[in-house]
Amino acid sequence: MPDTPGHLLIVDDNKVNRLLLSRNVELLGHKASVAENGRIAMEMLQTQPFDLLLLDIEMPEMDGFEVLEAIKATPHLRDLPVIVTSSVEGIDNIVRCIELGAEDYLPKPVNKTLLRARVSSGLEKKRLRDEQKRLLERFATSEVAQDLQESGFAIGGKRTNATVLFCDIRGFTTLSEHLAPEATIELLNTFYTLMFEAVTSNGGIVSLMLGDGLMALFGVPQPLDNTAECAVSAAHEMQNMIAMLNEERLAAEQDGFRIGIGIGTGEVVAGYAGTNNRATYTCIGSTVNLAARLEAETKNTGNGILVDQATLDLLQTPEVKKAFPKTRIKGLHTPVDIHAL
Amino acid sequence: MSDGTIDLEIFNELKDATGADFAAELVATFLDEAPVMIADLKAAITSADAEGYRRAAHSIKSNANTFGATALADQAREVELGDLPKDGDTTAADAVEALFDTAAAALRGLIDA
Questions:
Q1: How many Å is the Cα radius of gyration of chain B?
Q2: Positive or negative CA dihedral for A323, A324, A330, A333?
Q3: Which among A9, A91, A166, B72 counts the fewest CB atoms within 10 Å?
Q4: Does the distance separating the beta carbons of A16 and B63 come in below 8 Å?
Q5: Interface predicted TM-score of the whole assembly (ipTM), two decimals
Q6: Nearest CA of chain A to the CA of B29: how many Å?
């Protein structure tokens, strides 16, 4: 058998057909499971992974067309290749299957050579899609990958509410002057590992890495219950992690460092910007600008975390260290109320 | 068995591809299941269930084709594509049943051989 064995689900209401298809699939070196109708098949697909579906059309309870529609509507099943095996009459029905996303159509009785070829190409497609998904998740966050899979790729943004967090290493230039380039990269890698962990464990995504800092988004592309709470919780985790890292560094007689974090909440425009060939998921708008300015402002106030009024208003139990009412911030026209947490 | 009831080329191909034991098991399954499908077909006439009528005929056609029971498959296909008979007329269903009986006898002969 040249193929890597796959696990196929055979859906057919007719016992002779189920037995025969299972036998043929097993003779090709694959594993076969069977379902008697569409409803049972959908239940099995929810609980265990399959590589390919061989689907009959004419079935009681839930027919093949309904299964194709249900699969299309389920994000984690959308990549599952489906080969329709049926003796339905009429080219219309075949066209309908293909339009509903079926990979292929094999008339019954199924020709063994054709079955082998179609199963083999279906499994190969599944393998490539899985690989693509893994690559996508490596270069984008899994939330963005999921958004891409659910909504497809389209340049352009949509308006939504989100919380934006900027974080930056204080005095990184000075710090790196005392370090070998390799040690600087190592420090950055440690920094990013810790910061990513803090962001993702609180439901956010890191949308940009900026030299010695990053921009994180909470509430896009996937909605969150309380974006401000998540971002502030991530910010506290970031500060705690840096404190722990500094203890280790001081014990190893290395210089410690500090980070500044700015957080803003409000309307943003989020989406894919760039060209059709090279694009990035990003977020723009005055909220993004405000968060970036607040992060810069931490240098002036000397605080670790600065948030805007909208973020503070959303917190259940805010612990404000200091309030800075009507503060003039570089780049902003009107003074704003900001708070150190 | 060369009276044309079973297309031997199709039947032997099935046997070669899946193994004689498996083919015998598959025939036995068909002989068990087909009477149920024929009963479904007749019940659908009585209850004027056009969809059930078509689906039963469709299943018989599909299985008959698997074993090379060409005459049975052709009759079942005609039923599948035809309208639900009026006034409980079972002529077409009876023809399916008669052709099934002939095909069943021929298939039994083939797996015992």
A1: 14
A2: positive
A3: A91
A4: yes
A5: 0.90
A6: 6
DSSP-assigned letters across all residues of A50-77: -SEEEE-S--SSS-HHHHHHHHHT-GGG
Q: pLDDT by residue for chain A (341 residues), tens digit each?
A: 456 789 999 999 999 999 999 999 999 999 999 999 999 999 999 999 999 999 999 888 899 999 999 998 988 888 899 999 987 777 888 888 888 889 888 888 888 888 998 999 899 888 888 887 777 666 666 677 777 666 666 666 778 899 999 999 988 888 888 888 888 888 888 899 899 999 999 999 888 888 788 999 999 888 889 999 999 999 999 999 999 999 998 998 888 889 999 999 999 888 777 676 676 777 888 899 999 999 999 998 889 999 999 999 999 988 899 999 998 888 888 899 999 99
Report chain A residues whose CB lies below 8 A from the CB of B18: 20, 23-24, 27
Burial letters A67-106, b for 16+ CB under 10 A, else e: bbebbeeeeebeebbbbbbbbbeeeebbebbeebebbbbb
Q: Is B66 on the interface with A (CB under 8 A)?
A: yes
pTM as predicted: 0.60
